[in-house]
TrEMBL record:
Domain of life: Bacteria
Claim: Membrane is one of the keywords in the record: yes
Protein name as annotated: Uncharacterized protein
Keyword list, A-Z: Membrane, Transmembrane, Transmembrane helix
Residues annotated as transmembrane: 12-31, 37-53, 73-103, 115-143, 155-176, 207-225, 237-256, 262-282, 289-308
Amino acid sequence: MVVKRLQNRVAESRLALPAIAVYAIIMWITSGLFTKGLWLQFALFVISTYLIVEMNNKYALIRTYSRMVSCSFLVMTLAASGLLYSVSGNIVQLCFVAFYTLLFNCYQNKKSAGWTFYAFSCLGLASLLFVQILYFIPVLWLVMLFNIQSLSFRTFWASIFGIIVPYWILGCYYLVNGDLANIATHFAALEQFGTFAQFTSLTVNKIATFGYVLILALIGSIHFMRKNYNDKIRIRMIFNTFIVMDLLSVVFIILQPQHYDMLIRLMIINTCPLIGHFITLTKTWITNIGFYIILISSILLTIFNIWAPSFSF
């Protein structure tokens, strides 16, 4: 007899996402939605959440009904409440979610130049605000080759043109205003490296949030690698993409922590399917205790980041 524990009841409940959505609105109001006028940031957050929901539905990331992927995204983003205030950060987050949603549509289709173009256009748009995201492109080509299995001559060049398109638009803007030198300045940031692993530049809040997301990523990744034989090959390939990109984001943060504010967003996007898979599909008493610990730690971290936002060494 299969025992359904609290974590499974919550994961499979149709009320889970609406309940977390109400919680999210309360947290946004607490963080200054009205008092600080965070309406644009809130709108970007809502669209990102919607795309996460659509990605979960379209690609059936979890083999049973569950809203834990989108719920995990909401909870982790709210726990890192300092991320809510940045317009550019929310745009980068939205672009990366849109990138995944479009890229996974290319699975095993080497002729999907159109979808590839649109996906990498989102990545190019994100790079206007966070140029260091271009470092991920060689790895993403490998992901297209081995995981998505869509890399071909056509899709390779479609990705190149997709990345370039936002810069054509930006170049026209700078040309009209006579500021073409700004493009060179923009790309010059790719050559600027801070001190490796200089974590003293991060507040305790950020280190705590990084540790929290990292632990969830490890739990989700280890669980999936142990139990992925139960999933379809397509799901394995997609989740392997999440694991690879999560690992790359962690390494990037460790090497260049000055980019934490952007990279932690990518970690959250890649971690939410992994931990959502873990919460939904594990059924032991140990994992149920783990669910309680995750839930309590999420609430405590949220409170800590909201009421002690600038705590530092």
